Structure to design on (396 residues):
């Protein structure tokens, strides 16, 4: 089997890349270990930067996003028992974010690939990548895998490693060729999906002496809520009652007027938090994109957006190569992506550091965090910095 670009992984990175390449007349094959149902039902991120939503709309996969996406023109930072709104409309030149769950993005892209006759292998096993190491070698890169009970070998010009943090592409690169930058945080998030109308029109990021809490949503009927917990928290210790109780305490206002609406919990889970970057994001003819190359803590809502911005750069570079034979943009892929990656890392780390309880004994740090929140919500310059990062920095 042959194609121009072999794509490992059918998350947002792999599917958006395959879609963008198709629009440029470039053939690709996507290979994914999970079933389509699994990928579409996996509960993941839910905030699209305006630029991400625009890309999906402009490339013809935005119909449902337009119907069901919730446009948010601000967020609330809640601390000391009071809410403070960050107004994107005013502070970020009218730009906004769109609440639309990652699993719907993935479903829309699967539909688009299928409608265009794109080849996507799901439930693939034993996926491995070969012969990508020497840019000048005559041997072409290959992806081997098993699917539908048969062994396959896909020969391609380039491989895109879009297989997430636990995928096989990054570990297939000789260790000495990569530098890893890593930070693991001493806490995690316990997240629930609840059948309850969101108790606020906009997201609420709450700083509390018992730890961070976040109110988010998936639709006008479904709330998504999180509380900071231990990184290895046993979900078994958290009954539904305990979760709601903690959310009431951490999100509550001093005047007692704000009410959190409860509802049946549909799903719950704990995720660890880390910041991770690998440099460079390319080795020979293997290009890493999305979570395969970097992880951000979820506080800035950036994971999916960063994956999409990587593959936008990669699609443009591959289009230039196939049109003109020029490799200059491909050679620049890692440098272009990393400039954005590090700015987004900084923002995600900063939001995380400002809002979480790091050390219960450190009263100095807690005062400093409250001062920072006070500054961010009272200085126009500081609010504007938060707003322009949250809605998404301009594309290079
Ligand atoms: N072979 C093929 N596919 C694989 C392999 C493998 N060996 N290992 C993992 N995969 C698949 C996973 O099953 C998953 O569907 O690769 C896909 C990677 O998708 P994501 O993890 O969603 O990563 P990415 O597309 O980079 O999107 C990043 O997803 O995790 C969120 O918060 C993150 O929002 C961010 C976004
Ligand atoms: C979510 O809705 O899952 C969500 C929203 C904002 C974040 C993180 C997660 O910062």
């Amino acid at each position: 089997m042959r194609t121009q670009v072999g794509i490992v992984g059918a998350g947002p990175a792999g599917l958006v890349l395959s879609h963008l390449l198709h629009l440029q007349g470039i053939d690709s094959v996507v290979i994914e270990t999970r079933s389509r149902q699994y990928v579409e039902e996996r509960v993941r991120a839910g905030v699209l930067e305006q630029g991400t939503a625009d890309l999906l709309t402009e490339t013809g996969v935005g119909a449902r996003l337009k119907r069901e996406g919730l446009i948010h023109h601000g967020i609330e930072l809640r601390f000391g028992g009071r809410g403070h709104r960050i107004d994107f409309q005013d502070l970020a030149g009218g730009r906004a974010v769109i609440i639309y769950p990652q699993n719907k993005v993935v479903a829309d892209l699967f539909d688009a690939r299928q409608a265009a006759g794109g080849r996507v292998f799901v439930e693939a096993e034993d996926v491995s990548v070969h012969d990508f190491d020497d840019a000048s070698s005559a041997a072409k890169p290959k992806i081997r895998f098993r699917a539908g009970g048969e062994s396959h070998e896909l020969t391609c010009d380039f491989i895109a490693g879009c297989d997430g943090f636990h995928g096989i592409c990054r570990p297939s690169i000789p260790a000495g060729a990569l530098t890893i930058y890593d930070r693991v945080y001493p806490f995690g998030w316990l997240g629930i999906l609840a059948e309850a109308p969101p108790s606020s029109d906009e997201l609420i990021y709450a700083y509390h002496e018992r730890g961070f809490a976040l109110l988010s949503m998936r639709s006008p009927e479904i709330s998504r809520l999180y509380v900071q917990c231990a990184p290895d928290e046993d979900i078994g210790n958290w009954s539904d009652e305990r979760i709601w109780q903690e959310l009431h305490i951490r999100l509550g206002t001093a005047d007692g007027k704000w009410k959190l609406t409860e509802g049946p919990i549909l799903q719950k889970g704990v995720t660890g938090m880390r910041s991770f970057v690998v440099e460079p994001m390319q080795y020979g003819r293997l290009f890493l994109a999305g979570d395969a190359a970097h992880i951000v803590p979820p506080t800035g809502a950036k994971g999916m957006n960063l994956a999409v911005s990587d593959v936008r750069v990669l699609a443009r570079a591959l289009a230039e190569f196939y049109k003109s034979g020029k490799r200059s943009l491909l050679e620049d892929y890692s440098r272009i992506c990393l400039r954005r990656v590090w700015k987004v890392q900084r923002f995600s780390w900063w939001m995380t550091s400002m809002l979480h309880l790091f050390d219960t004994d450190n009263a100095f740090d807690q005062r400093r965090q409250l001062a920072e929140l006070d500054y961010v919500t009272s200085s126009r310059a500081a609010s504007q910095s938060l707003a322009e990062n949250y809605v998404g920095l301009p594309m290079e």
The chain has a mean pLDDT of 96. The two ends are 35 Å apart (CA to CA).
